[in-house]
Amino acid sequence: MMRRTLLSRRAARGVGILFFLAVFVGLQLRAEEPTPSKAIYNTFSDEEEMATGRKAAEETEKQMPILDAPLLTRSLNDVGQKVAQASRRPRLQYSFKIVNTDSVNAFSLPGGYVYVHRGILDFVLNESELAGVLAHEVGHVVAYHSMNDVARRALVDRGIYEGKKAGLLSDQQVTDMMERYGGPILLFVDRKFNREEESEADMFGFYNAIRAGYDPQGLIATLGRLSKFTGNPTLVEGLLMNHPLPRERVQALREELKQNPPPTGLEKDSLAFRAAKLGMKSLPPAPPPLPKKPTQ
Ligand SMILES: [Zn+2]
User: Fold this and answer.
1) How confident is the model at residue 139 (pLDDT cuts 50, 70, 90)?
2) How much is the pLDDT for 5?
3) Rounded to an integer, what distance in angstroms lies between the CA atom of residue 155 and that of residue 165?
4) Residues 94, 138: contact at Cβ < 8 Å?
């Protein structure tokens, strides 16, 4: 009798463990948006991140040709702000600008400064595709990818660390920090993200696009076409260099879509986007890309 009770207790515990495992595994497999996780050593406030981004943006715009096309930039901003306001970090002051080169590339600086190369505006076929690209870039900001990197460097840099202990970073400290780390191009623009960071930015981008009212197929379709791109490889080099694109990224997003189907009726395209595409045709051709400065 005693033995039977013991056995059934064991069996009950076994069932309990199995149940726990089923729930745990189920939770792991459930499709859901990750939570933005700031690295423990990243003690920069949003204001400090925005100040760093502002300085990096000033320097970047001195070195890269920014397209002077107010209507086009405004329509890019309309899509970008929709995505940014629906993101997990809506308090940052986002800005979206166009770099006047034909290569297919996009990058973001800390604090919400997003740049798309003109070539990507040619590459995307509808508004949801553009929204997907922007949502992915905003995803890198939401996930603190670049700022965590700055914080990691600052941790071993006494000057910055002491400055931070004294309170909010001053403009001069932000300038010094940027100079010490080789400037924004080296620090942020040409930075190669790793596979985990790309997947995280994809997931933030996927859910972000949906919350902003865009069909997430836009992001999936753009990445899918990029992964099979057979045209001039130098045109996509930038994007693939800074955001390596293994096929699994597209596969992971398709899986997410299957497990968590978005509501119907999401926006795919708009008249404004069509008009912007037409407007691009009347622009003078982009200047040839600037020769890359050798890195130190
Ligand atoms: Zn990326």
Assistant:
1) very high
2) 52
3) 11
4) yes
pLDDT tens track for 116-126 = 999 999 999 99
Q: Which two tokens stand for residue 35?
A: 């939570």
The predicted-structure confidence for 214-242, as pLDDT tens digits, reads as follows: 999 999 999 999 888 766 767 776 677 66
Give the whole-angstrom CA distance, residue 85 versus residue 91. Answer: 8
At residue 94, φ and ψ (nearest 5 deg) are -80, 145
Which residues keep their CB under 5 angstroms from ion ligand 1? 201, 243
Lowest-pLDDT choice from 77-86, 148-157, 194-203, 254-263: 148-157
Helices (H), the chain: 2-29, 46-63, 70-85, 118-123, 127-142, 145-155, 158-165, 171-180, 183-184, 195-211, 217-227, 233-242, 247-259, 271-281
The pTM of the full predicted model, rounded to 2 decimals, is 0.85
Q: Tell me which residue has tokens 């260099």.
A: 241
CA 223 – ligand 1 centroid, Å: 11
Cα of 88 vs centre of ligand 1, distance in Å, is 17
> What's the CA-to-centroid distance between 181 and ligand 1, angstroms?
21
* Cβ count near 190 (within 10 Å): 16
| Cα 250 to middle of ligand 1, angstroms | 13
**So what's the pLDDT on residue 28?**
46
Q: How far is the CA of 278 from the centre of ligand 1 (A)?
A: 27
